[in-house]
What does this fold into?
Amino acid sequence: MGCSIRVSISLGIVCLFSMWWCGKGIGVNWGIQASHQLPPETVVRMLRENGVQKVKLFDADYAILKALGKTGIEVMVGIPNDMLASVGGSTKAAEKWVAKNVSEHISSNNVNIRYVAVGNEPFLETYNGSYIQITLPALYNIHSALIKAGLDSQVKVTVPLNADVYASSNDFPSGGDFRTDIFQPMLKIVKFLNDINSPFTVNIYPFISLYTDPNFPVEYAFFDGNASPINDGGTLYYNMFDANLDTLTHALQKNGFGNLPVIVGEIGWPTDGDRNANIEYARRFNQGLMTHISGGVGTPMRPGPIDAYFFSLIDEDEKSIDPGNFERHWGIFYFDGQAKYPLNLGTTNSGTLVPAKDVHYLEKKWCVMKPSARLDDPQVQPSVSYACGLADCTSLGYGTSCGNLDARGNISYAFNSYFQKNNQLEVACKFPNVSMITKTDPTPTVASCRFPVMIQPYYESAGLRFWCEQKPLGLVSVLVLILLTIL
Ligand SMILES: *[C@@H]1O[C@H](CO)[C@@H](O)[C@H](O)[C@H]1NC(C)=O
Ligand SMILES: *[C@@H]1O[C@H](CO)[C@@H](O)[C@H](O)[C@H]1NC(C)=O
Ligand SMILES: *[C@@H]1O[C@H](CO)[C@@H](O)[C@H](O)[C@H]1NC(C)=O
Ligand SMILES: *[C@@H]1O[C@H](CO)[C@@H](O)[C@H](O)[C@H]1NC(C)=O
It folds into this structure.
């Protein structure tokens, strides 16, 4: 009962706040490809304590949406690419998706869903065109389903696209246009978004440019104005972000959609797994972006506020490393909700990130290489390969956070990663004759390297999570809310 009142009062305050804040501030991408996730309530509390007003999800996880209910936080839910064919191929499937993953959460739990992301970078070249024909029908069907549900004015549809859907013919923003091989499908999507008053969503990655092109001018990736600017017919560009966004603006303008709103769906910098992925660069990039955005200046072609979502909130240790070892390290928080570096979002009193509270760790135990084991023991190499194949060794290697470990440190890191990922099960530290469990923290004095202890696995424990939401005081809550709003 007491709980119910508390929820309502804080809800009232958030509602009042969100009237002033609505649509402002930075958003975050909340992905869940992690072996050990923090409970959704813990993450939502962290979002609120950091003043984050917008989150973008990659699907429509029930527990996460439940936890976002009644917080006022704006939510973009996502339809994964592998569902595009079904919702694009059947209006019934699209209606079911909207009923279950949008309407129900709005009506029964007051989740502030504002967007449906239809697919995630479906035109990426690595997909070989698999989703090109099905994306527009999916977009169309979901929009129709939203109309039918009476939600189309509140919930907009969009398609988060990789910035490679457009290119420049002259290496300057002014040469921007949609990629020739997908020109027609892109035009149709843009026209449809324009017709229904929905935004274009683009993901922009200066880090990837630096990663793939060793000659890329490093300073041009950042916002400090230290790069020699690019002169596009008299318009100067001091950073890649502005130039990239304006390449899109030119592409839209050229095709008659110069006023289509644009959301930056993903933007960020990873902290590990590559020589250019480190804490210093990530902090510099993300803080620079914050300052750039909060100034409200916009880009040369599009002055004004920029709507953007950080990629990402928390590290995900089960992401595919096909794009590179950095892929598991995009978080501004580690897997356990601890901040990686100070970052001022302009929304907290402390002027920096607030870490997750009440995080439950496993015991302080690690799996390491036995001091008595020899480096040339024939068991060592296969054990390391096995551990790294199933756990996460992306912090080893040239230029990474644990890249300076010696051979023994390397081996211990791999063993420990496997052991922690398997919830410190004793059998997960039984590499024949070469490993042992220790309670002495093996974290080396090597500056940046961490030998983590895993957090407790999170299971959906309905009982505990939902007791708070029994609403014996439903009417009182509403009155408190109305009162607070009037005051
Ligand atoms: C709702 O979304 C979830 C998560 O993406 C998905 O697994 C489920 O199939 C969706 N429900 C319907 C009815 O389409
Ligand atoms: C794309 O094509 C390449 C080569 O033709 C193939 O190796 C790869 O598996 C394909 N990817 C997908 C997602 O179909
Ligand atoms: C275990 O390691 C010790 C010391 O390195 C070695 O003498 C012994 O032969 C090893 N046993 C097995 C089963 O590999
Ligand atoms: C540690 O492991 C990494 C990645 O497997 C490797 O590149 C590096 O050479 C190893 N270092 C030593 C000293 O064995």
Residues 396-397, 406-407, 410 surround 2-acetamido-2-deoxy-beta-D-glucopyranose (ligand 4) (CB under 6 Å). The radius of gyration is 24 Å. Residues 209 and 216 are 7 Å apart (CA to CA).
